Amino acid sequence: MLNESVIEVRDLRKKYGDFPAVDGISFEVRRGQIFALLGTNGAGKTTTLDVLGGFLRPTSGSVRVLGLDPARDRAKLGSRLGIMLQEAGFFESLTVAETIDAWRRFTPGARPRAEVLELVGLTHRTSTGVGRLSGGERRRLDLALSLLGGPEVLFLDEPTTGLDPEARRNTWNLLRELAQRGMTVLLTTHYMEEAEFLADRLAIMDRGSIVREGSLAEIRARTASTITFSLPAPLTLADLPRPENTQVEEEAGQVSVTTREPQRTLGLLLGWADTRNLDLTDIHVDAGSLEDVFLDIATGERTTR
Amino acid sequence: MTWLTYAAAQFRLSQQVYWKRIGIALTGTALPLGLGAFLPLQARHTVISRMPGSLYVLTGLMAFALFFTVYNLVNAVTSRRDALIYKRLRASALPDSSIFAGEALAAAIPSCVVASLLMVYGAVFLGSGAPHDIALLVLGILLGSAMFTMLAIGVSGVLPGADTAMWIVTPAMVVSMFCSGVYSPVSQLPAFLRLVAPYLPMTPVVRVVRTAYLGQESLPTDLGDLGVMLAWTVIGFALARRLFRWDPRRTS
Fold this sequence. Notes:
The structure holds 2 protein chains of 2 kinds. By secondary structure, chain A is α/β, with parallel strands linked by helices. Chain A has 2 domains: 5-220, Rossmann fold (3-Layer(aba) Sandwich), CATH 3.40.50.300; 224-286, 2-Layer Sandwich (Alpha-Beta Plaits), CATH 3.30.70. Chain A is 33% helix and 28% strand. Chain A is built from 10 helices and 13 strands. Chain A has helices at residues 45-52, 74-77, 96-105, 113-120, 135-147, 165-180, 192-198, 216-221, 262-275, 290-304, and strands at residues 5-16, 19-30, 34-39, 60-65, 81-84, 153-157, 184-189, 201-206, 209-214, 225-230, 246-251, 254-259, 284-286. In chain A, the strands form 3 sheets. Chain A has a 6-stranded mixed β-sheet with strand order 5-6-7-3-8-9, sandwiched between helices. In chain A, a hairpin with a 2-residue loop joins β8 and β9. Chain A starts with a strand and ends with a helix. By secondary structure, chain B is mainly α. Chain B has one domain (3-243). Helices cover 75% and strands 2% of the residues of chain B. Chain B contains 11 helices and 2 strands; from the N terminus they run ααββααααααααα. Chain B has a two-stranded antiparallel sheet with strand order 1-2. The N and C termini of chain B lie far apart (39 Å). At the A-B interface, α2 and α3 of A face α1 and α5 of B. Chain A: Residues 7-232 form the ABC transporter domain. Chain A: GO terms for molecular function: ABC-type xenobiotic transporter activity; ATP binding; ATP hydrolysis activity. Chain A: InterPro entries: AAA+_ATPase, ABC_transporter-like_ATP-bd, ABC_transporter-like_CS, ABC_transporter_ATP-binding, P-loop_NTPase. Chain A: It is a peripheral membrane protein. Chain A: It comes from Streptacidiphilus jiangxiensis.
């Protein structure tokens, strides 16, 4: 059961005219996993979610949600699928309670209103008009509606944009808890820390393609780490060893060695220092962060243009 | 949940928000109700096409009240599309067809209620008596509502947004009011309009409602009128199939 693939995307392409918004991506998400799609604006994340939500038909390739085709079997998916869109309107003239009540009427097996408002922390705004909610509160009402039917699968398009840090943390904890109870979550975000905190697996999209995919650790492992230390006097940069596949630079007595194999490079450097009886002070190893990966991709984009 | 429960839920929601936009709701109901109550009084002492003027005008305005289905529905559809509310509704378990059904019913029912109130008003204050052919009256009102519903959904596909919706609805309303025999016979229109008028959507509705009420026309005329209404319903349906959009037009 746990290894069951709940979301399957196979060689998905979606073109708008000649423009390939999504250009042949594949991934799958298993039950209870939180999968994050990261990417710059226009990378194709929302288009992917729109196809998975059944709003758009793919140009080619296939998508399956709970084994069903979301465009064709929309009715069968029903409230087994919860969707929180990036931008969707509310009836501004209704109150929070009226909105939830109206949505409960067409959500099979809907949670009680009080319960869902409690979940997203909106209880104190029950009788407030939707038009008077703050941006973050609207986002939470959005989440409340998508969770109303107790869905097995949840799609979230930038769920915490506009939330204050506390509300964001609460939302993250809620999503984690729901995932632990077996809900499968696919979210898009451009907050690195959101992906780092939440996602079991993630994919980074760039111009319609997935450029990296894996667990956080796997993705980091493929990113260059940086080893820095103070250059021992009276040595100069020319005296240092040059391990293979590294880049060595010096600035104001600080040496930085960029490497994809931090353990081997560090071993080499320490061995070299030992044999010369040198003290390497201020040694730091920075594993590549998700942000580095992201910036790498952005730089790649610039150089290939 | 059945399709019917979904459609009923959408209907309830549509009605709820309809009455919260009080400006739209008042124009959609109080305007035809006011016209229907006052204009017949002015025709009390006249005879139009061998019928008592007050009842001639009253029956015309009963039919005209149904046009407000278009007003209600075009407003609802374009404003919800602009505000990305349809996108949200479609993210729920609601089938598309039940969204249409709920919206259409919520737009048509206020107009039908206005027409019914005018009928009661006629019986109580204008001495109209009971309708001559109740079955034809019901058929005329139902088919007229269906026709206006389909035309409204079809036309809303062409409209860029809620701001411009009234640019189309208002001229159509004016043409319907003046060229379809609502308060004076089509035969009194200028010659070129006289040719077109019978084929406008409003004209057959007026004639069927009036005939059903007062018993004037013959069966073949009625069938012809019902045929014109059916044709417009089909045209509306075809337009809706081709042009209806759930999402606002992308500017990029």
